Amino acid sequence: MADALHTLSAAELGRRLAAGTLTSRALCEALIVRYQAVNDKVGAFTHLDQADVLAQADASDARRKAGQGRGPLEGIPVAIKDNIAVKGQPLTCSSKMLAPLVSPYDSHVAERLRAAGAILYGRLNMDEFAMGSSTENSALRKTFNPWDLARIPGGSSGGSAAALAAGLVPLSLGSDTGGSIRQPASHCGVVGLKPTYGLISRFGLVAFASSLDQIGPMARSVEDCELLLNALASADARDMTCFGPSDRALTPAGDAKQLRIGIPKGFLGKGVAPEVAAAVNAAVEFYRAQGCAISEVELPSADLAVPTYYVVATAEASSNLGRYDGVRYGHRSATAGTPVEMMTASRSEGFGPEVKRRILLGTFVLSAGYADAYYVRALRARAKIRAEYLAALAGVDVLLTPTVPTPAFKVGEKASDPLQLYLEDIFTIPANLAGLPAISVPCGKSGHLPVGFHLVGAPLSESKLLAAGRLFEAAHGYADQQAAL
Amino acid sequence: MSNVPSDWEVVIGLEVHVQLHTRAKVFASSPWGFGKEPNEQVDPVVLGLPGTLPVVNREAVEKAILFGLVVGAEVPERCAWDRKNYFYPDNPKNYQLTQKDFPVVVGGQVEIELPGASRNVMGEHKFIRIHHAHLEEDVGKLSHAGSGSLVDYNRAGVPLLEIVTEPDLRSSAEAEAFLRSLVAMLTQAGVADCDMEKGQLRCDCNVSVRRRGDAKLGTRTETKNLNSISSVRDTVIYETARQIRELEAGRSITQETRGWNAELARGYVLRDKEDAHDYRYFPDPDIPTLKISRDTVTRLAKQVPENLYDRQRRYVDKLGLPYTAASVLVNDRALAEWFEAAVAAHPANPSGIANLVANDLLRDLAASAGAAGAFDEAAPAPLSLASCPIKPAQLAGLVKLTDDGVISKQQAKEVFAEMFKSGKDAAAIVDAKGLRQNSDTGELEKIVQEVIADPAVAKSIAEYRAGNEKAINALKGPIMKRTQGKANPVLIDQLLRKFLA
Q: Torsion angle, CA of B44/B49/B54/B60, rounded to 10 degrees?
């Protein structure tokens, strides 16, 4: 089954669809068969409306037949993390709080995908409200790493990464607040890109921490990731923080072999597993051999990133999640009483423990008497981290580190130790704090578990990250990126 | 007027919440207005559905800037929004977007006029300083029905400008005058409609008292959500008396938030300082800081109308209007502009025009409009000047006919009534009705002499000559009869006196 449809890249599927050797219906039917065989094992999807998928596929085939194809994504399924609104589909954020909710509107990215002719294919599991690094915080189901079903897929976009690695879908959307695209991409051996803050509209992305959240593309190849990114990036008047690609052109990629690569000092030391360090060092040596200039850079405030993140993100989350109160939609407690009592009971029942922990933390750091010591200081630290990253990126094109210090851990292994779990994001968080684009690209294995390296660039340098990724991918192949199930 | 003992001084500051006159809500494209079915004027953004984001309505920001220019405030280079977090079902996101640190209006002042000794006498003028004004979103309305609660989000997201004064007001009369002046400025600039019956203007009222001469302010209380000028006045009177009573009895004032029951005319405690909310303000990450370009400010500055009291002073000093007429005209910008258009057509007699506008025209318009509710029970009913059958130049024409002696003042009233009915020019009505006065001295002299010669009036002439002034009137009837009532009465009077002398 080397040529089975579920193993092919979106680019290859697009070529076959364009050549008329494949229909979107045949592709979707094959993926539904794969879904029926595999999804219960992996748990990537929380919802798939097969009839709707086939209707979309038929409509796509009809467009193509009429000569009205909409471009390279025409007829290709894209699975969507369950915190991105698609009209008529569930929007649960894998939370009991929103389990009854069906979105009455399309997010901007859903509109973009429809305009590109893509098939909006099912809902993907995640940590509740995107809070977590293992997808164990989903209130709906467990998701397992396709490379080792006893292990976590990473998170919070665990469903998005696992679906790709399991061959359930060729493309998926994730969201990234502190590493939620890149960390599961690394653990599942796929590619995940967090764009520059403001490149892709957040309209329709359920907010976790508004100043950090970005939607991003995930795929089994860098080429596919780029294909999806190009469809998503566009200005949107409904998100005042989104400027899209139209205002400022993405930095031209140039020749990837000319890239100057910075290695942050000390990053490969602290808590990085030896196999991870070895795989990442091999990637560095690859780039050096290609002619890239490698240099060490200083990021003295890097240690502040995790604590800064957990103040800023929880502060914003405590406010963003205020709206879930059972009054207008979502879970409503059966407990009678005053409106405020009903709201309190609905929230107590609807949110899981990690969400409650972060709401409490965020409420605390914004409270009178504490805000100056925590929230205001965190904003200062954030500004400092951003300044250091921008300064470092003035001298090099990209910064290269591991994506995650260690390979995927076992389900339940860190569930009782949130602080240990928070360190999963130590390398990915600074890009969110600084609003910078970053990508995770697979670079080998630690035993049977995938390892990825991480590139961060200056604002709007996505094309450099993608060019660097493509150079690596061209030399290392794509075949190894799907787990055998 | 309250009766504050002379050794006490009351200090008042107001926070006035005004719904701005805009087509769309402040952070959503949903329209808003009065009298819709519950939850008809909502969209995903207004309801705070997951994933929705606010987008600042430029029109609302411009209205707020325009207010700043009207009160002579500083227009800052930038403004920004913060989140005010609190849980209540009328608040769709459980946070309210407001401006805590970077409001759209900083400073400024509002001129007020206190009541004079009588309606004909202008009262004292004062300036009340504005601390700042910020742009925020209104909330929905919660009501209780049977065992449950109902919530209507039509009002949620309506743009609100919260105007905060310095504690410059010193009496209920000043508070009342401030609100009247503020309402006139807001409506005349098109910033807001201020219809209190529709809840478009609501007030929080901070009151404290101190012994006259004390430098330190007393502990204040804040009475929330007052929805009429009379409620503000009554609250100040009530709260002043209560605080003085407490202090004179040796008790202290608790800093607290209070409500007002207008039916019972009584205040009550809502919550004390211990229960004060911690709103956990922080900068809204969804709305970037908004830069206010100087081009925008320049463009908006051109929309600022003449200040109410500058206009009043101009009418009295330059046009020679009596204070009473001037004060009526300046209250309504459209009325004042209508008046000025009439004066432009007949500049010789502004007072004559003002008299007709302020009395006859307003009376007839009010009668035709019916007793429509106004923002303020003491102000004139809303006008429909735009649909008024008489146009300014036509009214000027009527005044000119009177001034030229073509018709009498009495006839002018009759012509005015006909103009209001038909919209015809005064001259046309005068001609059609044959109202033109006979002022031909030669012709009238002849008639007067003929009447005097008639033996039937000999008795009246004798009485007049004997000193009975009124007896002369008996001669006017026959003269009017011979001229079909068109004789110029002033001229007849002159001629009679001349020939009987």
A: 50
Do residues A147 and A247 both lie within one domain? yes
Tell me which of B386, B412, B432 is where a domain ends.
B432
- The total number of structural domains in chain B stands at 3
Is A103 near chain B, with CB under 8 Å?
A: yes
The predicted pLDDT at position B373 comes to 43
Q: Do A367 and B94 touch (CB under 8 A)?
A: no
What is the nearest CA distance from A362 to chain B, expressed in angstroms? 10
Selected for mutation to probe chain A from B29, B30, B46, B53 (highest A CB count within 10 Å) is B53
Average of per-residue pLDDT across A378-384 = 98
pLDDT at B381 over 50: no
Residue B385 shares a structural domain with residue B447: no
Q: Is residue B34 domain-shared with residue B143, that is, in the same domain? A: yes
Mean pLDDT of B224-242: 96
Same structural domain, B277 and B225: yes
Q: Is residue B249 part of a domain?
A: yes
Asked if B122 and B190 touch (Cβ cutoff 8 Å), the reply is no
B77: containing domain = 8-299
**In contact, B319 and B350? CB cutoff 8 Å:** yes
For residues A73 and B266, what is the distance between their CA atoms, to the nearest angstrom? 68
Domain co-membership, B273 together with B407: no
Pairing of strands A119-124, A171-176: unpaired
In a domain, B464, yes or no: yes
CA–CA distance, B193 with A113 (Å, rounded to integer): 44
Q: What is the mean pLDDT of residues A183-189?
A: 97
- How confident is the model at residue A1, as a pLDDT? 40
Residue B35: partners with Cβ closer than 8 Å, 6 or more residues away? none
B271 touches chain A (CB under 8 A): no
Q: What is the pLDDT, as a whole number, of residue A246?
A: 60
Q: Work out how many CB contacts closer than 8 A connect A with B.
A: 104
Pair A408, A467 in one domain = yes
The per-residue pLDDT for B374 is 41
ipTM, two decimals, is 0.95
CB neighbour list of residue B348: distance below 8 Å, 6 or more residues apart: B400, B403
CB distance from B285 to chain A under 8 Å?
yes
Residue A370 and residue A239 share a domain? no
B215 in a domain, yes or no? yes
d(CA B445, CA A141): 113
Distance from CA of B138 to the nearest CA of A (A): 16
The answer, for A235 touching chain B at a CB cutoff of 8 Å, is: no
Annotated catalytic residue, options A133, A138, A156, A318? A156
Structural domain of residue A335, as residue ranges? Answer: 325-378
Write out chain B residues lying below 8 Å of A204, CB-based.
51-52
Query: Per the domain annotation, does A210 fall within a domain?
Result: yes
Q: Average the pLDDT over A366-387 and give the result.
A: 97
A323 with B92: Cβ contact below 8 A: yes
* Closest CA of chain B from A393, distance in Å: 25
Catalytic: A445?
no
Q: Is B287 on the interface with A (CB under 8 A)?
A: yes
Check whether B79 has a pLDDT greater than 50. Answer: yes
**What pTM was estimated for this model as a whole?**
0.91
Name residues whose C-beta falls within 8 Å of residue A241's C-beta, 6 or more positions apart in sequence.
Answer: A197, A198, A202, A210, A211, B285, B286, B288
Closest B-chain CA to A237: B55
pLDDT, tens digit, 9 for 90 and up, residues A436-456 = 999 999 999 999 999 999 999
Question: Is residue B265 scored above 60 in pLDDT?
Answer: yes
**B95 touches A at CB < 8 Å:** yes
Question: What is residue B60's predicted lDDT score, i.e. its pLDDT?
Answer: 98
For A303-329, how does the pLDDT look when each residue is reduced to its tens digit (9 = 90+)? 999 999 999 999 999 999 999 999 999
Q: Do residues A370 and A445 both lie within one domain? A: no
Whether A328 sits inside 8 A of B142 (CB atoms) is no
Q: Answer yes or no: do B218 and B360 share one domain.
A: no
How far apart CA B267 and CA B242 sit, in angstroms, is 10
Q: What share of chain A is helix, strand, coil (3-state, %, to 5)?
A: 45, 15, 40
Residue A85, chain B, CB below 8 Å: the answer is: yes
With CB atoms and an 8 Å threshold, state whether B285 touches A239: no
At residue A454, the pLDDT reads 98
Of B83 and B409, the structure prediction assigns the larger pLDDT to B83
